[in-house]
Amino acid sequence: MVNPAEVPTASVSDLPSEGLVLLDVREPDEWSAGHAPEALHIPLGELPSRAAELAELPDDRPVYVVCRTGGRSARAAAWLNAAGVVDAVNVAGGMKSWQTEGRALVSDDERTPPEVL
User: Fold this and answer.
1) Which 8-state DSSP code applies to residue 106?
2) For residue 2, what pLDDT is reported?
């Protein structure tokens, strides 16, 4: 298994503004409360069974993997790279950094403002 410390990592400020492929591996309640508008949601525990969905993503650019603060996404990126599913890059600081950097957030319930749980 790949050591999560050896996973390619990028900060939110380094993420491309165009053509960003973002995979959110947080749990459903975290996703519902607030997520990036274009993100794909596959909870960490479901990655192995849903890897085929990732194979449909564009393969000409990396898939940036995000969770709340970067721990789960590092494990997910390590697994994805080791399995050869996609070229995965961990997003350092996760959705907490995403929010701090002022990136767009949406929630599943339009009546409540999005937040990062």
Assistant:
1) B
2) 55
